[in-house]
Write a sequence for this structure.
């Protein structure tokens, strides 16, 4: 997660929330949520080194594969569930999104926007899957198996009866306004607050 | 670093102790060891609960030429995960066991003979209550952590449920919320082995000057087998022969390495561990069921606890498989408790909680930073 994503998510988490961080990594972000926002956090990660690091920060962490369905988390246990830059790594992103809005009142999801003009240029002109500093891996050897665009994500939310409460976009410094004007083309990544429709 | 030389202590209790099954001991003794110093605030005490064949000797050495340290020396000591530079660690031999606490191999004051089969059947909750008496005897009013593996982990959970305001942190490793039919079956095979030994003498072997070593050895061989994983055994023993050869025409007695190992484990254990204790301990395990006081509802049982929990399982453990720890974890989360869970990748099987493993040791060490005064 970039520092800009991080700041947006931090701003969106109400003080004192119960937060579930899916793919919490070494717990740096969750520790900040705890220290700066008074959040009561639980992290989920599958990597043992990440668990050790997060436990060392005094956090509660659960070793679990998000792809296994998050059945261990009971409905409405959390105020906020965060999935930062991991949606594209999931086997069934749509199932995870549905589960997330069940577990928590609100979900915050961020992902790299595959509709960005540079991706389109790469695919359109070179005719090859995009590779960049932000996406340095070959298509056959990447955990990112489900890239999507801003429009794809919003269409999925609509299909799943998930309401979008708020959207923020990250774009290159020179393209900040363009990113707001046409996020699907100019945002490098997007961050959403979502919830179950009518929730 | 090692805690170095340690000396067991004995606490004597002269008031009657009533077991869950109604039996009464007029007086009893608990043998225990401590490592580190209790601070003046009394908020750095950690209780270690031992497993089936464990004892109060959890760390350090009993003499200068003692080659075998306590059973959890891996985890307890200066700079180790349970850091005795800042924590005061207590480990007691459970009531009814055979390493010095009142048990089947100690003298029944009423008869002046060893208790033998007459010693009351303890349950895990009895051990918890007797350890609470020990804590009070030591001037401790709350544990910064209660922790253990296998049966010891179950005991730690029982502590957290039965005396919530006594337990600030609880560590349950390779544990289960209760035993399965398969678990009970293995325990029954072990008991059957002991009770079938002609020297068992209805549990009265000590008074008759006998020892049911064949039965205890067999019980231990079966038990030990269930503590190892198939992959771990293949790596360690394979199909290696210790005696004989596979050469054509060789009609020697074949002894595979794994046979030799199990026989050795059984033989050593059979002279060191009391048969009645093995029967009582396995029965206490069988009877353990955290949810039983709550109409089978584990979430409701664990809701009583106030502790923060560390639950860890070991990937190749088939005695108490990871799924059993996941049951504990999920019930704790459903009860709104603070819990960290990891499934440690290892070939060490159920014994994983006793053996070196970088992830396990690092996790325990990092998690333990939250235990005790900061």
């Amino acid at each position: 997660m970039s520092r800009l994503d991080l700041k947006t998510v931090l701003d969106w988490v109400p003080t004192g929330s119960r937060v579930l961080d899916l793919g919490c990594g070494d717990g740096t972000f969750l520790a900040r949520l705890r220290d700066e926002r008074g959040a009561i956090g639980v992290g989920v990660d599958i990597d043992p080194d990440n668990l050790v690091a997060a436990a060392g920060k005094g956090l509660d962490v659960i070793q679990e594969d998000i792809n296994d369905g998050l059945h261990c988390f009971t409905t409405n246990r959390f105020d906020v569930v965060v999935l930062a830059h991991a949606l594209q790594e999931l086997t069934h992103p749509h199932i995870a999104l549905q589960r997330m809005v069940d577990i928590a009142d609100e979900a915050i999801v961020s992902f790299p926007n595959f509709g960005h003009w540079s991706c389109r240029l790469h695919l359109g002109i070179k005719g090859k899957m995009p590779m960049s500093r932000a996406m340095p891996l070959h298509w056959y050897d990447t955990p990112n198996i489900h890239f999507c665009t801003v429009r794809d994500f919003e269409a999925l939310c609509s299909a799943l009866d998930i309401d979008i409460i708020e959207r923020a976009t990250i774009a290159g410094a020179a393209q900040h306004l363009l990113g707001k004007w046409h996020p699907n083309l100019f945002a490098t990544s997007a961050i959403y607050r979502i919830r179950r429709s009518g929730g | 670093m090692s805690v170095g030389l340690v000396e067991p202590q004995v606490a004597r209790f002269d008031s009657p102790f009533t077991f869950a099954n109604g039996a009464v001991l007029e007086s009893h003794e608990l043998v225990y060891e401590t490592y580190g110093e209790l601070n003046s605030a009394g908020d750095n005490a950690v209780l270690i609960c031992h497993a089936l064949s464990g004892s109060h000797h959890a760390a350090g050495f009993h003499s200068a030429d003692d080659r075998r340290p306590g059973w959890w020396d891996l985890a307890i000591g200066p700079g180790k995960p349970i850091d005795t530079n800042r924590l005061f660690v207590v480990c007691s031999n459970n009531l009814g066991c055979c390493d010095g606490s009142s048990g089947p191999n100690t003298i029944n004051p009423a008869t002046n003979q060893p208790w033998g089969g007459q010693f009351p059947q303890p349950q895990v909750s009895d051990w918890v209550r007797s350890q609470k008496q020990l804590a009070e005897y030591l001037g401790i009013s709350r544990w910064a952590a209660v922790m253990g593996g296998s049966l010891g982990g179950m005991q730690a959970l029982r502590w957290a449920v039965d005396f919530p305001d006594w337990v600030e942190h609880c560590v349950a490793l390779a544990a289960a919320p209760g035993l399965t039919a398969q678990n009970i079956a293995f325990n029954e095979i072990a008991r059957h082995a002991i009770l079938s030994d002609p020297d068992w003498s209805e549990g009265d072997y000590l008074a008759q000057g006998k020892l049911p070593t064949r039965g205890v050895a067999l019980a231990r061989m079966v038990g030990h087998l269930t503590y190892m994983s198939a992959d771990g055994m293949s790596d360690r023993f394979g199909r290696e022969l210790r005696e004989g050869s596979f050469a054509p025409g060789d009609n020697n007695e074949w002894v595979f390495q794994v046979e030799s190992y199990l026989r050795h484990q059984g033989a050593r254990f059979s002279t060191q561990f009391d048969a009645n204790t093995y029967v009582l301990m396995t029965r206490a395990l069988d009877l353990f069921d955290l949810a039983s006081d709550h109409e089978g509802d584990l979430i409701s049982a664990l809701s009583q606890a106030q502790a923060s929990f560390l639950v860890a399982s070991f990937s190749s453990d088939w005695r108490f498989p990871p799924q059993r720890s996941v049951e504990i974890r999920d019930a704790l989360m459903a009860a709104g408790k603070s819990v960290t869970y990891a499934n440690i990748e290892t070939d060490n099987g159920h014994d994983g909680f006793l053996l070196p493993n970088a992830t396990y040791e690092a996790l325990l060490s990092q998690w333990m930073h939250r235990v005790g005064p900061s």
Observations:
- Chain B has two domains: 9-178+289-368, 184-282.
